[in-house]
């Protein structure tokens, strides 16, 4: 099922073309990976999908209907949740307080309403367990969690609050090999639950195991869009690394140094 699609989407900032004629699709139960180095246009595409910026050209559709979001709230109301690198968590607050931040459950009525701590704690623990995340204590400050665990809490939070499309901005960028593997496992699990996932990364070795579709960006232009069956990891890596440019550099160095 097609949840989200962009066709020939473009964005300019004055005379600077940040994105030009980029197209991709996000289906339920699949992971669409957007790959590219710094300055490739990944952040611009995220901001368009998440409702931070409007696109200037092309078409953006959600559930088959054209949209022009004016705020992230509008995107969220349509089930598009974005988890940025900084995660928007408060390190000194507990895991469950961060889980419900801004949407806390309450008991009572009117001026007598109070935070329902028991429900919040139980719901957080259950929602994390449903995603396969077993935390020792949801009372612990979120700042005491590893980077991978924090990413997983943010993913579980988005799933719990009804996201249909989950956009993950470089979730493994600052993580070690083991922690990156943990996060990628939960990315795959989110797709297994029927969500459409957009994984933004510069690492093809992280994208390929979980990805169903790969969009390669360079300087705001799509280098290519591939189904998993149509591209191998070595070829994806070669294109990401600028294979032709590296080959030219290798040839140039060989000429300088001699045989």
From TrEMBL:
Q: Which GO terms describe its molecular function?
A: ATP binding
Question: This chain belongs to which protein, by name?
Answer: ATP-binding cassette domain-containing protein
Q: Which domain of life is it from?
A: Bacteria
UniProt keyword terms in alphabetical order: ATP-binding, Nucleotide-binding
Q: What's one Pfam family here?
A: ABC_tran
Boundaries of every ABC transporter domain copy:
4-244
Query: Does the keyword tRNA-binding belong to this entry?
Result: no
